[in-house]
Design a protein that fits this description.
- The protein is mainly beta and about 675 residues long.
- Among the domains are: about 30 residues, no CATH class; about 100 residues, Immunoglobulin-like, CATH 2.60.40.60; about 100 residues, Immunoglobulin-like, CATH 2.60.40.60; about 35 residues, no CATH class; about 90 residues, Sandwich (Immunoglobulin-like); about 100 residues, Cadherins (Immunoglobulin-like).
- It has 7 helices and 36 strands.
- A 4-stranded mixed β-sheet has the order 3-9-8-5, with no helix packed on it.
- Strand 15 and strand 16 form a beta hairpin.
- It is flat.
- The relative contact order is 0.06.
- Keywords: Calcium, Cell adhesion, Cell membrane, Glycoprotein, Membrane, Repeat, Signal, Transmembrane, Transmembrane helix.
- It is a single-pass type I membrane protein.
- Its main location: membrane.
- This is PCDGK protein.
Length: about 675
């Protein structure tokens, strides 16, 4: 049972930078049958010196660089791990520079020169320093590099990145050439001194240069090699922007690239032991095989479910089906299978969908073989899940049936581009966001608001500044769309700025849209509106429309007032006439109304045929007015009032209760 070393062990050859370094094995013990797992950890010794990429380094530093400027140095590499790995750097004594040792997220060290005292080219044209790398062994191992610094006249302005740190995420199976991030720097100088070249910083590890490529002109960082989440989950990439001046100005930034795990590793099944043949009288629970299953993926992608494959007696009571949206209509998505131990017609099975009224236009099942078909194209944004019941029935009498539940899940595709909510893409208003002169750097001016109808990773939106009137004045947040001032506003800045913001999702393929932002430099919104009024065209044919509208309203109002005044005067005149008639008839003696009588006096021969009257009275006839209608022909009896006074009972009368209104004498 002793475990022996068979050959010389080299930890660096076996595990590289991985710590701890371990070798796993399995031991099978029989009688009784048992399986044991063992691990041998390989411990590191300090048997490797730190090594610099080159024995000499050369830097060109302008005498105009201010104190506090930092200059990254090439890192030394030590294949040992733990305390035996590279621990620190030391710099030879000098009056101008100090050494600042930084630690990356993976624990490795790198050094930066920090300028403590400004350089003077007329006093000293060059400096020679010695950088020493030390590991933590006992005794420590070391390496040296000569640093030669040329002090030269540089540009007045160095490039400046719009962000000091960029963040991006990319899937591990992303193909070569995929865009990861786009860095952007600006230089206020003109000509070659303002042209920028992007490159990796000098202390960028060689492994990073193998996996990523940087476009020197556009600043686009793209995938170059094959990423592997199981190997490295996060890359810390240091980049620099250098202008084309005689003494180039340099700016540095950092890009953090997170590798997203995908399910690219299938589970590995190892059959440790198989016992065959199996006796037919073997008791339940008898061991027939020992299996070992591993999956190199992480999180849910690394979880393994073990089950017996179909095709043997082991039945399902539910099915889960995953279908990509925008599918082709008519495709089969599932085969529901069942068995019946009966014979003949009693074992003939037919499959039907219960509740066809709900999903009958979406799904169909073959009655003979149980194949479930999708009849139409599904949309993840419309509905994510469909649940239905499939019934399996035999052909016996009476028929026997069983039900199985089927759940169809619609998975998302990146078929929706980001949609801009603010600013509204279809608006025609000339209103612009306002920022006051002298606003300091870091002030939030406005925000681009957008949504993506897709789900999950396909709905993640990133914002980048695509075009600007002055690229050095504004910057946009990569993940939130907030637009900030990148520097303090000056008096000589343009009063109007137009920004074009590019919005991209993280789907495959990437879908994008753009938004245009107008920003005015003014103290108040009133100034902006005044400026917009001043720039209106003088020969606009619609400039008199408002005047004509106001004039039309005044004329209509005047006509309405005159009409109402005339109606009022006419009503007053009629009212006075009715009052005169009322006062003149108050002394007239009225008959007390009796039962309703309707006597056709004309046909009865009591009065001339040409004479006809109607009298309307209230029950309190002493307070009633009279309605007098003219005869059909001219009456010889004189005025209407006289006729009413001398009227006989034989005349035609109609007595009504309370009249709804009092007629005027004219009526």
């Amino acid at each position: 049972g002793a475990l022996l070393v068979n050959e010389r062990i080299d930890r660096e050859e076996l595990c590289g930078a991985l710590s701890p370094c371990s070798l796993s094995f399995e031991i099978v013990v029989e009688n009784p049958l048992e399986l044991y797992s063992g691990t041998v950890e390989i411990q590191d010794i300090n048997d490797n010196d730190p090594v610099f990429p080159s024995s000499q380094a050369r830097l060109e530093i302008s005498e105009s660089v201010a104190a506090g400027a930092r200059f990254p140095l090439e890192s030394a590499q030590d294949p040992d791990v733990g305390i035996n790995s590279l621990q620190t750097y030391q710099l030879s004594a000098n009056p101008n520079f100090a050494l600042d040792v930084q630690t990356r997220v993976d624990g490795s060290k790198y050094a930066e020169l920090v300028l403590e005292k400004e350089l003077d080219r007329e006093e000293q044209r060059e400096l020679n320093l010695v950088l020493t790398a030390l590991d933590g062994g006992s005794p420590p191992r070391s390496a040296h590099v000569q640093i030669h610094i040329d002090v030269v006249d540089a540009n007045d302005n160095a490039p400046v990145f719009n962000q000091s740190t960029y963040k991006a995420s990319v899937r591990e199976n992303t193909p070569s050439g995929t865009l990861v991030a786009r860095i952007s720097a600006y230089d206020l100088d003109d000509g070659p001194n303002g042209d920028i070249i992007y490159s990796f910083s000098s202390h960028t590890p060689a492994k990073v240069r193998e996996l990523f490529a940087l476009d020197s002109a556009t600043g686009e960082l793209r995938v170059k090699g094959q990423l592997d989440y199981e190997e490295t989950k996060l890359y810390e990439i240091y980049l620099q922007a250098k202008d084309k001046g005689a003494v180039p100005g340099v700016a540095h930034c950092k890009v953090l690239v997170e590798v997203v795990d995908v399910n690219d590793n299938a589970p590995e099944v190892t059959v440790t032991s198989v016992y065959s043949p199996v006796p037919e009288d073997a008791a339940p629970g008898t061991v027939v095989a020992l299996l070992s299953v591993t999956d190199l993926d992480s999180h849910d992608n690394g979880l393994v479910n073990c089950f017996i494959s179909p095709g043997i007696p082991s039945s399902q009571d539910s099915y889960d089906v995953y279908v990509l949206e925008n599918n082709m209509p008519g495709i089969p998505i599932l085969n529901v299978s069942a068995t019946d131990p009966d014979l003949g017609r009693n074992a003939h099975l037919s499959y039907t969908l219960l509740g066809d009224t709900t999903f009958g236009h979406l799904f169909s099942i073959n009655r003979d073989n149980g194949t479930l078909y999708l009849l139409t194209s599904l949309d993840h944004e419309d509905q994510v899940e469909f649940n239905m019941i499939v019934q399996v029935q035999d052909g016996g009498f009476p028929p026997l049936a069983t039900n199985v539940s089927v759940s169809v899940f619609v998975t998302d595709l990146n078929d929706n581009a980001p949609m801009v909510l603010y600013p509204h893409p279809n608006t025609t208003a000339t209103y612009a966001d306002v920022v006051a002169p002298g606003t300091p750097a870091g002030h939030m001016v406005t925000k681009v608001v957008a949504v993506d109808a897709d789900a999950g990773y396909n709905a993640w939106i990133s914002y980048t500044l695509l075009q600007a009137t002055d690229p050095s004045l504004f910057s946009v947040g990569l993940h939130n769309g907030e637009i900030f001032t990148a520097r303090q506003l000056r008096e000589d800045d343009a009063p109007e700025h137009t920004l074009v913001i590019l919005l991209k999702d993280h789907g495959e393929p990437v879908l994008s849209t753009s938004a245009t932002i107008s920003i005015s430099v003014a103290e108040t919104v009133k100034e902006v509106l005044t400026d917009l009024t001043d720039v209106a065209p003088a020969n606009d044919p619609r400039r008199h429309v408002t005047f004509y509208l106001i004039l039309a309203v005044i004329l209509v109002s005047a006509a309405f007032f005159i009409t109402m005044l005339s109606v009022g005067i006419f009503k007053c005149y009629k009212w006075r006439q009715s009052r005169e008639l009322y006062n003149s008839s108050r002394s007239t003696t009225y008959r007390t109304p009796g039962p309703f009588n309707h006597i056709d006096a004309v046909r009865g021969g009591f009065t001339p045929p040409s004479f006809y009257h109607q009298v309307y009275l209230t029950t309190d006839s002493r307070q009633s007015d009279l309605l007098c209608k003219k005869p059909f022909t001219s009456s010889p009896l004189g005025s209407r009032q006289g006729t009413i006074r001398n009227g006989e009972p034989g005349l035609y009368h109609q007595i009504v209760g309370t009249a709804s209104r009092l007629p005027t004498p004219a009526e």
